[in-house]
Design goal:
single chain, alpha+beta, three-stranded mixed beta sheet, globular
């Protein structure tokens, strides 16, 4: 907490990438940023802010066991079909074992993203 407090009080960057660890799967994510920036997206939100400064802070992230496993799927099926949303929709289909839709949606994603 002290490292985060110092970044908030003394940091000069617009945003910082922190290391998220979810059951051993790690990646950097922009989760610490100035108040003038906001999250964008229906699910798997992302911060649109300048800066890619990685800091030596690790956050352990675990999904709630009471989380509705179909929540993101329902939201993404209704969302605008941007490349980002198509990618996450395909992953949700795959996680929910709806493989035919996952494959088709991955193809849609690739057609838009490349």
């Amino acid at each position: 907490m002290e490292k985060i407090r110092n970044l908030i009080e003394q940091g000069t960057e617009e945003s910082y990438l922190l290391l998220l660890d979810s059951n051993g799967s790690t990646h950097y994510l922009k989760v610490l940023f100035k108040n003038k920036y906001r999250y964008a997206g229906e699910v798997h939100e992302v911060v649109i802010a300048p800066g890619n400064t990685k800091v030596d802070i690790k956050i352990n992230y675990l999904s709630s066991p009471s989380r509705d496993p179909k929540r993101n799927l329902r939201i993404l099926e209704k969302a605008e079909k941007t490349p980002r949303n198509l990618f996450y929709l395909a992953k949700e289909y795959m996680d929910n074992k709806i493989y035919d839709k996952a494959i088709g949606t991955f193809y849609q994603y690739l057609a838009q993203a490349t």
